[in-house]
Write a structure and sequence with these properties.
The protein is α+β, with helices and mostly antiparallel strands and 196 residues long. The protein has helices at 6-32, 53-57, 65-88, 110-122, 155-173, and strands at 95-98, 106-109, 127-136, 141-149, 181-187. The protein is built from 5 helices and 5 strands; from the N terminus they run H-H-H-E-E-H-E-E-H-E. The strands form 2 sheets. Strands 3-4-5 form a 3-stranded mixed sheet. The protein has a two-stranded antiparallel ribbon with strand order 1-2. Strand 3 and strand 4 form a beta hairpin.
Length: 196
């Protein structure tokens, strides 16, 4: 199952909306300043209206007009609600509930656990850079980690060492029964060495 990254969608939508507004605003400004426009342009001159009365009422009597307008607006409303829900949903728990054994429990800050996991993974041999975040719920957190490996590092060894080391220590220190993790491994870019 693939997930849509809302940050990327937000940037694309803002870029498209900005380009559209810039094009429309620029054309209106150009016509208002008296720039000659092509023959089939929206505006003929600075005193022309965007839509004439005939253009505004041309499709009103057609049987398909109102269902098309209502359907288009319904699609826009559903897309806007999806976008709002995707942006309001918290993906990273602010706190992790730790079972202390006394029935009360304790709250551990999620960013603190993610930071400790990141620092522990960065000290691992063969890892040039590490990054970790927590996802899921506060009662069942999960980890997402990215490890950049040095050129000579073995990916299988780095993954097993991360699982047995930093991930296990983070799970045990937080008192969690399990801490599922998604780990992405990448190699550090480096220049090719010359062989003489």
């Amino acid at each position: 199952m693939t997930t849509v990254r809302t940050g990327r969608v937000n940037r694309v939508l803002l870029c498209l909306l900005g380009l559209l507004l810039l094009a429309v605003g620029g054309s209106v400004l150009a016509v208002g300043l008296g720039v000659r426009t092509p023959r089939r342009w929206l505006h003929a001159g600075p005193h022309d209206v965007l839509l004439s009365a005939a253009e505004r009422t041309r499709w009103r009597d057609a049987g398909w007009w109102w269902p098309a307008v209502i359907g288009g607006l319904a699609v826009l409303v559903l897309l806007a609600l999806w976008w709002l829900a995707a942006n309001l949903r918290r993906r990273r728990p602010a706190e992790v509930l730790v079972d202390t054994g006394d029935g009360e429990g304790a709250l551990l800050r999620g960013p603190a656990l993610a930071s400790a996991l990141t620092e522990d993974a960065a000290r691992q041999p063969g890892v040039a850079h590490a990054e970790a975040v927590l996802t899921g719920r506060r009662t069942r957190p999960a980890a997402r980690a990215g490890l950049r490996l040095e050129p000579a590092a073995d990916p299988a060894a780095a993954l097993s060492e991360f699982t047995a080391g930093p991930l296990t220590r983070a799970r045990e220190s937080a008192g969690l029964a399990s801490l599922p993790a998604e780990v992405r491994l990448r190699a550090v870019r480096h220049r090719a060495e010359r062989v003489t």
